[in-house]
Amino acid sequence: MGKPTLCLDFDGVIHSYNSGWKGADVIPDPPVAGALAFLTNAVASFTVAIYSSRSHQPGGIDAMKAWLRHHLNATYEADGDAVFHHIEWPTYKPSAFITIDDRALTFDGTWPEMGTLKEFKPWNKR
């Protein structure tokens, strides 16, 4: 049996997304602090799948791959490619053991109030 799947959102989780949306193939900002170290550790225990709203848009996956490879190699040199080659890039949201996303709530069986949803802010906007 293989490793469980960890699905990671890209913008706001791996890519800091400080500049906001510039297009599927434009990724101008640095990584979120600790993201690269997290990925390096995660590939040992999980099948890591990076999925984003960019994933189904022309140039989106290629841009995310180039961005991540650049930052991994700049930080870890030759070891960056070793981490990079363990990452999957689905074009659909995969069935995952767990997902990390900056724009999601954990459903605990209780439906949230509409006001709670309307007031939601991702971690980097609070």
Task: Describe the structure in your own words.
- The protein has 126 residues and is α/β, with parallel strands linked by helices.
- It is 32% helix and 10% strand.
- The protein is built from four helices and four strands.
- Strands 3-2-1-4 form a four-stranded parallel β-sheet, covered by helices on one side.
- Helix 2 (60-76) runs antiparallel to helix 3.
- The termini are far apart.
Q: Measured on Cα atoms, how large is the radius of gyration?
A: 15 Å
The tally of strands reads 4
Distance between the termini: 40 Å
Helix amount, in percent?
A: 25-40%
What is the mean pLDDT?
A: 96
Shape, per Cα inertia axes: globular
What is the helix tally? 4
Topology, pairings included?
Blueprint: E1 5-8, H1 35-45, E2 47-50, H2 60-76, H3 78-84, E3 87-88, E4 98-100, H4 114-118
Parallel strand pairs: 1-2, 1-4, 2-3
Helix pairs in contact: 2-3
Features of this protein?
single chain, 4-stranded parallel sheet, 4 helices, alpha/beta
Question: What's this entry about, in short?
Answer:
The protein is α/β, with parallel strands linked by helices.
